[in-house]
Design goal:
GO terms for molecular function: exopolyphosphatase activity. The protein has three domains: 110 residues, ATPase, nucleotide binding domain (Nucleotidyltransferase, domain 5, 2-Layer Sandwich); 160 residues, Exopolyphosphatase. Domain 2 (Nucleotidyltransferase, domain 5, 2-Layer Sandwich), CATH 3.30.420; 193 residues, Hypothetical protein af1432, CATH 1.10.3210. The protein contains 20 helices and 13 strands. α8 packs antiparallel against α10. It is of the alpha/beta class.
Length: 502
């Protein structure tokens, strides 16, 4: 389908520190991101104590919008939404900016409330990953911090606090000095903001705590460079604070993967995040890449939020690569029937969806080339944007698809951690068997049954109608391949007969 026949959607998030542009198109009932761009406009730095935006800040904002408009001005069937947050909420002369903006980009700018900002942030995250039953989300912006309680995909409590990395940088770290007293002052101010939250926020029983946007991302990068991982806990945040204090000045901070302009805001963001952990008794936080702009984009496109995110992703990518969905369904049904017969004995019940996704998408690589299609499929999965899939889940899916036929990649599979390797080898066994009995692409699959004999030993018994020479030959080859992965297949000819048992 040519781009001229597709609907395009453009979201522009005008934050206090950065402006963000996202362009997407509708593709098979889902959104395909075409372009992302960020510009550090630093609008909040041009806000006077009296609440007026300087001409320089207004000029930076207008220039950014002018550049952004050039990215999508030639697209057809385009819907555009611009939202502005804290700085334009509080700027007394915001009308001056809004009127001038219409001369450079012909779309109205919505100055949204703090609660609406929080709702859109949660919506964007819910559209991009699988959420738990009880969720707590924090988004540290340039001028405000949004904190949201959610039940699965629905936000139930929305709050916007007057603390942000730009405003706190101006208040407590404007001279660049990184001292314990400066951090204490910033944390005390943040404590007052968090203490104003309703009692619901102090429940502490969170299944998932997420942090979005630039400040949390920068802090995670700093943790990774300083300590070797992105684990966000209060002790680790305090360690990072001490490292910043030891550096003495913001100019002495060296973080390879953080933009220099963002580095100056890390101390303020860190003080706010430490206060969040302390006041709300948070044990651990995970970063999430989604934020306000994703919420704006998905609502603009009216994508159904009630549908399971991963299911929607699998359907979308299957349609995108023209997968034979009927054949995929036959393989999936066979795989899940085999799975049900062994799942409890092998203790792999929690991995049912992973096997189902792999079976549904196993032929995705044929769209590139039927030769070595399993390798092409693995590449597509490993390098695609898959909303709802964690990095590990995406890698596991790519591994299953890439090893569905022919000789498995023994070195790669054997290098996996033991527990993960055992599960994936068993899922791979079921996937390969399901593909084998459906190779003829007929409406009715050949049938076989499985029974667990031991932890790593499986009996495979074709039904009488399935005792064809090619299948038996294929099963013997599978026995050899899987045996090299430590999983023993026992074909029915190798099993003791009832008479032998007597």
């Amino acid at each position: 389908m040519s781009s001229s026949n597709q609907r395009h959607f453009v979201a522009i998030d005008m934050g206090s520190n950065s402006f963000h542009l996202m362009i997407a198109r509708e593709q098979d009932g889902s959104l395909q991101i075409l372009h992302k761009e960020k510009a550090q406009v630093q609008l909040a730095q041009g806000l006077s104590p009296e609440g007026y935006l300087s001409d320089e800040a207004i000029g930076r904002g207008l220039e950014c919008l002018r550049n952004f408009s050039q990215r999508f001005s030639g697209l057809c069937e385009t819907q555009v939404r611009l939202v502005a947050t804290h700085t334009l909420r509080v700027a007394r002369n915001r009308d001056k900016f809004l009127k001038a903006a219409l001369t450079v980009i012909p779309y109205p700018i919505e100055v949204i409330s703090g609660h609406e900002e929080a709702r859109l942030i949660y919506s964007g995250i819910a559209q991009s990953q699988v959420l738990a039953k009880h969720n707590l989300i924090i988004d540290i912006g340039g001028g405000s911090t949004e904190v949201v309680i959610g039940e699965k995909n629905q936000p139930v409590m929305l709050s916007s606090l007057r603390c942000g990395c730009v405003s706190y940088n101006e208040r407590f770290f404007s001279d660049g000095q990184l001292t314990l007293s400066a951090f204490r002052a910033a944390q005390t101010a943040a404590d007052k903001q968090f203490s104003s939250l309703s009692k619901d926020y102090f429940d502490g029983r969170w299944d998932l705590v997420l942090g979005s946007s630039g400040s949390v991302k920068a802090i995670c990068e700093a943790l990774l460079e300083s300590f070797g991982d992105e684990t966000v806990t209060l002790p680790r945040l305090k360690e990072l604070k001490l490292k910043l204090v030891q550096a003495g000045h913001v100019d002495a901070l060296q973080f390879t993967n953080i933009d220099k302009k963002r580095i100056t805001l890390v101390p303020a963001g860190l003080a706010i995040l430490i206060s969040f952990f302390r006041r709300l008794a948070i044990e651990q936080l995970e970063p999430t890449p989604a934020a306000l702009r994703e919420g704006v984009l998905y609502e603009l496109a009216q994508i159904d939020q009630s549908q399971d995110i991963r299911h929607r992703t699998v359907e979308s990518i299957a349609n995108l690569y023209h997968v034979d969905t009927k054949h995929g369904a036959r393989v999936r049904n066979t795989a899940m029937a085999l799975f049900d017969s062994v799942a409890d004995s092998w203790q792999i019940r929690p991995f049912a969806r992973l096997l189902s996704y792999a079976a549904s998408l196993h032929e995705i690589g044929i769209h590139i080339n039927s030769r070595a299609y399993h390798k092409h499929g693995a590449y597509i999965i490993a390098n695609s944007d898959l909303p709802g899939f964690s990095q590990d889940l995406q890698q596991d899916l790519a591994m299953l698809i890439g090893n569905q036929c022919k000789k498995p990649q023994f070195d790669t599979i054997n290098a996996l951690p033991d527990g993960r390797r055992e599960v994936l080898v068993k899922l791979l066994c079921l996937l390969r068997l399901a593909i084998l009995v459906n190779l003829g692409r007929v409406a009715r699959s050949l049938r076989l049954s499985c029974a667990v004999l031991d932890t790593n030993e499986l009996a495979v018994i074709p039904e009488q109608s399935a005792r064809v020479d090619l299948l038996l030959k294929d099963l013997k080859r599978e026995k050899k391949h899987l045996g090299q992965l430590g999983l023993i297949l026992r074909l029915d000819s190798e099993l003791p007969s009832p008479a032998d048992e007597d």
